[in-house]
């Protein structure tokens, strides 16, 4: 009998696209064993040129570090949700890497069989599946290959349970592999994932988040209810060969309430898709037959980040620079304030309203599609004053910026009752870059933006540029 490490194979390897797999036993237990085809560790260094040996060892070291970290995080997720089938053992034998996970012995139901289950059974499957997806999202991991084949539906006791498997293509949110190394199943790609891959070197990693899994999940749920393999339109003249338009789906055999949820999940704008946590909550409405009409894509709340309070409310974002202003908004809109780690620092039900409402008081800036009138702003109203060095500061308007002496900026801030902030400057909204000038021995950058000049550190310039603000 063939042995691999501490495992005894039950049969020969089955060959698939990017790995070989077989069932194996260790210490009387049965496992699903994968043999990864790449990378290959240079176990015979004498066959490598020095430079190639160094590069290959680095690739393998990076691969090992990533696998150990993501396996640890998925293990954490599996402890909060036992529907996640993650890697139990990751090891190398000679030049080849292996992964061992729990062998699923239950009978696995096909898409066609699932489509014939009762509506209540299928709703239960969706709710349980969203719970597993939430556990993965809670550790900031994108599954990367959501499809029916990677969601085993088994029956345990009297209920059906979805098991989420195969995390070989997973990565952290906003940090996918290079486009050419990002895999998955093309027919389940979200629009942003398809664009990232087809854009090649120009692809933006920050665009790929857990919301990509939400899009793919909608396509899977569609199949669970229709029994049909979804066949997206093929675009012969496009870089990416598949495209799904929610308007073109027949939604046959799908209740109207569920259809409304799937339409949200299939939104081409990731920010407007519901999170896994929201889907769990929305299933209450779906099961009652109520139409789900909107989703902010985020829970309504205020989060303290650095020196700012970022409010997400009904799909819009607002920024406050003072706690009192954030509290007023929180009380008016009946939402709470949290730290970035999720710790609640203000409960609107216990706070006392100090006057005014979040809709008319406070100097917040609106974004994410909100109307300018939402917080009483117009384009010429000043938002804040920010110090840029020991002499100068900026007056930040809704759509412009003005440079003045610090003493004048302080007077302006006091007169207009707006925040005076001794923090780094932010670039104006959608600036037109006309000239970039490196100064101070290359440690700072002057950005000329059609009438305004920003002096930024190299780090600030690179960050703003990466964020698309320059």
Share in β-strands = 15-25%
Radius of gyration: 26 Å
* Sheet having the most strands: 7 strands, antiparallel
Structural class: alpha+beta
CATH architectural arrangement of the largest domain: Orthogonal Bundle
Domain count: 4
- Poorly predicted runs are 234-238, 352-379, 428-434
C-alpha end-to-end distance:
62 Å
What assembly state would you assign to the polypeptide chains in this entry? Answer: single chain
Topology-level CATH name of the largest domain: Transferase(Phosphotransferase), domain 1
CATH superfamily of the largest domain: Transferase(Phosphotransferase) domain 1
Number of strands: 26
Count of separate DSSP helical elements: 10
Structural overview:
It is globular, with a radius of gyration of 26 Å. The longest helix is centred in the N-terminal third of the chain and has 31 residues, at 50-80. With 470 residues, it is of the alpha+beta class. The chain has helices at 50-80, 111-115, 119-138, 191-199, 211-226, 256-265, 276-287, 323-333, 406-416, 458-466, and strands at residues 3-4, 7-9, 14-15, 19-26, 29-36, 87-93, 96-102, 141-142, 151-156, 159-164, 171-172, 233-234, 242-243, 301-305, 308-313, 316-320, 337-339, 344-346, 365-367, 382-387, 392-397, 401-405, 420-421, 435-439, 444-448, 453-457. It contains ten helices and 26 strands. Helices cover 29% and strands 25% of the residues. It folds into four domains: 3-102, 2-Layer Sandwich (Phosphorylase Kinase, domain 1), CATH 3.30.200.20; 111-287, Transferase(Phosphotransferase), domain 1; 301-375, no CATH class; 427-470, no CATH class. A hairpin with a 4-residue loop joins strand 17 (337-339) and strand 18. Helix 1 (50-80) packs across helix 3 (119-138). Strands 1, 2, 3, 4, 5, 6 and 7 form a seven-stranded antiparallel β-sheet that branches. A six-stranded mixed β-sheet has the order 18-17-14-15-16-19.
